[in-house]
Amino acid sequence: MCFSATASFTAGIALSAVGCITLKKSESKSQLMFAGIPLVFGLQQLSEGVVWLSLTRPDFAYLKTTFVPVFMSFAQVIWPLWIPLSILLMERQTVRKKLLYLFTAIGFMVSVYLGYCLAMYPVDAKIGGEHHIIYDLKYPMGLISKGVALYLLSIIFTPFLSSIKRMWVVGLVTLISFLAAKLFFAHYVISVWCMFAAIISVVVWYMMTHLNEHYRFHKK
To answer: Which pTM value belongs to this model?
Structure first.
């Protein structure tokens, strides 16, 4: 959460609780990754809470070198693969499934590339003037613009390919979240977008209450 350690920890606990609820609603292994999205967001927000502590309290400063990469791993390595793969696993229409394989492969390549950058290049964090965290990435700029485009493609566009009713809402909420973060918080996009994107957890909770109705309908 982009406001304070307290906000991050509160959001992390709340999202983790929602994640436990959505996981209980899953009726098959194919739904577990999608149902687990709120829990992963919760863990991500908890990790940013520790980043906040490392930046604001000298006695926790030693945690910065560990938890900045942990937070960035959620933001840049886990999500590009997790989102498309979670949707692919639930898809049952053959044509759409083939398209989802393609976008999952794109997400995998993005995760590998950003994971490599995270491991090989310096990443720092500091508190900006508007009381948000700025993540300073020293990645090579030659491929980063293409990497960002593919990142957005794998996360935002993939839900629109699904045959599952209302799955497009996940893509729409993610897109609106990114545009809002980019427009109003240009210097803090990584932190702020992750906070906005956590709204997806509410959508996931809603969808999990109706998802199995969708499957039962198509079995008739």
So the answer is: 0.86
